[in-house]
Amino acid sequence: MLKITMLGCGGSSGVPLLGGADGRGHWGACDPAEPRNRRTRSSILIQSAEGATILIDAGPDLRSQLLAAGVARLDAVLLTHAHADHVLGMDELRMVNRITGRALPLFATARTLEDVSRRFDYAFRPPTPGFFRPSLDPQVVSPGETVRIAGLDLRLFAQDHRVMETLGLRIGGFAYSTDVVEMPEPAMDALAGVRDWIVGCFQREPHPVHAHVPKAVEWARRIGAKRTVLTHMGPDLDWRWMRENLPAGIEPGYDGMVLEAALHAL
Q1: Is residue 57 a contact partner of residue 84, using CB atoms and an 8 Å limit?
Q2: CB of 42 within 8 A of CB of 14?
Q3: Is residue 63 within 8 Å of 30, Cβ to Cβ?
Q4: Highest taxon of the source (predicted)?
Q5: 137 phi/psi in degrees, rounded to 5
């Protein structure tokens, strides 16, 4: 079995957004009294029964997310794309370097690695004693590949985020898809028959670069997912509203949510 921890499930600005009448946040349609409406930027941990731990995306809330999850050791990081809300926590990885005593493998497409190596050039230099800056070992991957990372086989596929291509991934009966507005046919083929699926869904109405509720529901039905959990949610999506209105088998995620998923497709 795999243990999947949703470190964060919010959009690029989190929930609440900065602002609000009292300066303590703009909640949109979300009830501030519901703790599951408080969302940090989207990221997950994948942990195997053998103890391997893979981080998917390293957003600006990474330090507090790892502390909340009680995780300090990572075997590898995979980036779905280079948008700020998925990479701005990269500097926090230097503490992981100190704990493990080695450079951390960083898997991403060539385009994503080019972007992050330009913005975080110091993280790709030879490591320093004491790891006073992060030390990352870049590994180029491509959609369509099945890549072995920390003892797990990750099947990668391309997703349409309109402004760029993002990576989705599947391990056995589990899949993760964030920051996507359209699913190309090869992605749908890769997802077919998945049992547990986490998918980005930003709001109720159509959005130019993110899936909305009806689209995520349609995808889940088409691929035959038994359980679909929504992530990358904005302030339009109140947790209780979703629990009461989403179809059976589809539910909202929340920060700290833990799923168990089959390592092999059923």
Answers
A1: no
A2: no
A3: no
A4: Bacteria
A5: -110, 100
